[in-house]
Design brief:
The chain is of the alpha/beta class. It has 2 domains: 268 residues, Alpha/Beta hydrolase fold, catalytic domain (Rossmann fold); 172 residues, 2-Layer Sandwich (Alpha-Beta Plaits). The protein is 42% helix and 21% strand. The strands form 3 sheets. An 8-stranded mixed sheet has the order 1-2-4-3-5-6-7-8, sandwiched between helices. The chain has a 7-stranded mixed sheet with strand order 10-11-9-12-15-17-16, sandwiched between helices. The protein has a two-stranded antiparallel sheet with strand order 13-14. A hairpin with a 5-residue loop joins strand 1 and strand 2. Helix 13 packs across helix 14. It is elongated.
Length: 452
């Protein structure tokens, strides 16, 4: 199914088109000019397969940068800081606190700059056939000749560029790519962008990149010598260099499976580590406790039988655990038809709850048996003992979850106050009498549907 296109607004007023695909740890994919049209790309079979493969194990976030694709075209500023605003707008719109970043070709310097300036946000950095200093690319005799074509013959330029990027042996895919270029950007906008890109140089930022970094390069690529990749990897602390065979600049042609496998293995090393139980369950420390509960699980077993109900609950477990991994939650224990989890951040706990409900809603659109999940959250200082949590804060979180209808998130006033100003939408449900608590407890519904 084609991803749904959404929009984010930059701080300088530019509308940026984006979509997301898959669930789990986010991978934000920086676009490349002139190849940037998130809707038209999906119609190219090879490109669609590339995105589907990347989205099998994580949430892929793809957007069109300013001046291209479905984003605002009437822009003139393509400076590095302007392109960073595009990335910041999409990340902010999705409330992503931590994510992996993939920078391809000319967007590599943008990815490097963001990773260096925001070390707390970027979990992993992947650079594909890229560079830190634009002169390493733009001094190429081929690119100088292409610049002449860009000034004189737009169609011939796009056809030639497509064959250079996609390989001269790739007939029909290269022709489709050339048509994609022409649809993605105007020649005037591309001339302005290239004039700015030629000045990019983030060499000084390379030692400041703290995220684990994978530099991927095809060794026979003619437009960008593999020595550029070696230099790039050597100046980023503890970066890995992986040279693959081939002469095609595009990652989704040639041996695409090898590229995806390398990215999967690299990102996979950190995805299990995304869960941080020690911090979440520290004795005497403030944490946010989250409970989930599948509504009607007993009736489900009576209707489907043990085996059928277990199949449905396995899907609940998969979606919940993927959301916990993606948002740094610690699974304290599974409860058969629910979970107890802990977070060191109330913001991440709410983002996780919202991600869960959106994932269940997406699942239910095509599922024979929908999964309706209640989610409740409370924050406090529980007692940690034998890998479990105890105390009033935990009991209240469980009682709050029990009050939620299926598909709803309820939170205590403590959680609401901890995330004040973070952009979450709450609806006051008033004081509610909860078993075991003498006074009514004020509860708030967390609005998670995008139309809210």
């Amino acid at each position: 199914m084609e991803p749904r296109i959404q929009y984010a607004k930059t701080t300088d007023g530019v509308s940026i088109a984006f979509w997301t695909l898959g669930d789990g740890m986010p991978l934000v994919y920086l676009p490349d000019i002139p190849q940037g049209h998130i809707q038209a790309e999906w119609q190219i079979p090879e490109c669609r397969r590339w995105y589907e493969r990347l989205g099998q194990k994580r949430k892929v976030v793809r957007f069109d940068c300013r001046g291209s694709g479905l984003s605002d075209r009437e822009v003139s500023d393509f400076a590095l800081d302007a392109l960073l605003l595009d990335l910041q707008a999409v990340v902010g719109r999705l409330s992503l606190e931590r994510f992996a970043l993939l920078g391809c070709l000319q967007m590599g310097p943008v990815a490097i700059a963001y990773a260096a300036r925001n070390p707390e946000r970027v979990s992993h950095l992947v650079l594909w056939c890229s560079y830190a200093r634009a002169s390493d690319l733009y001094t190429s005799p081929r690119l100088r000749a292409l610049r002449e074509l860009l000034e004189k013959d737009w169609e011939l330029y796009t056809e030639t560029m497509a064959h250079i990027v996609f390989g001269f042996s790739e007939g029909e895919p290269a022709h489709r790519a050339a048509a994609l270029y022409r649809e993605s950007v105007t020649p005037e906008a591309l001339r302005r962008a290239v004039g700015t890109f030629r000045e990019f140089d983030v060499t000084a930022l390379l030692p400041q990149v703290k995220a684990p970094t994978l530099v991927l390069h095809r060794s026979q690529v003619r437009l960008l010598d593999m020595n550029v990749a070696r230099q790039l990897a050597s100046h980023i602390p503890d970066a890995r260099l992986l040279l693959q065979q081939g002469d095609i600049l595009s990652p989704w042609l040639g041996d695409m499976d090898a590229v995806v496998k390398a990215i999967d293995e690299f990102l996979g090393e950190g995805e299990e580590a995304a869960v941080a139980p020690a911090e979440a369950a520290a004795p005497g420390g403030l944490c946010t406790v989250l409970f989930t509960d599948v509504k009607g699980s007993i009736a489900l077993t009576q209707r489907l039988g043990d085996a059928g109900a277990r199949e449905v609950l396995r899907e609940h477990e998969r979606i919940t655990r993927e959301a916990l991994r993606a948002h740094g939650g610690s699974e304290v224990k599974a409860l058969g038809d629910g979970f107890m989890a802990a977070f060191s951040s109330a913001t991440r706990a709410l983002e996780c709850a919202i991600a869960m409900q959106r994932a269940f809603a997406a699942h239910n659109q095509s599922a024979d048996v929908p999964i309706r999940v209640r989610v409740g959250l409370n924050a406090g200082e529980p007692i940690a003992e034998a890998a479990d949590l105890f105390g009033t804060a935990v009991n209240l979180a469980a009682r709050i979850a029990a009050q939620a209808p299926g598909g709803e998130i309820l939170a205590s006033d403590v959680v609401r106050q901890l995330v004040a100003g973070k952009g979450f939408l709450f609806a006051d449900r008033g004081g509610v009498a909860l078993r075991g608590f003498e006074d009514p407890v004020r509860l708030y519904e967390v609005r998670w549907r995008e139309e809210a």
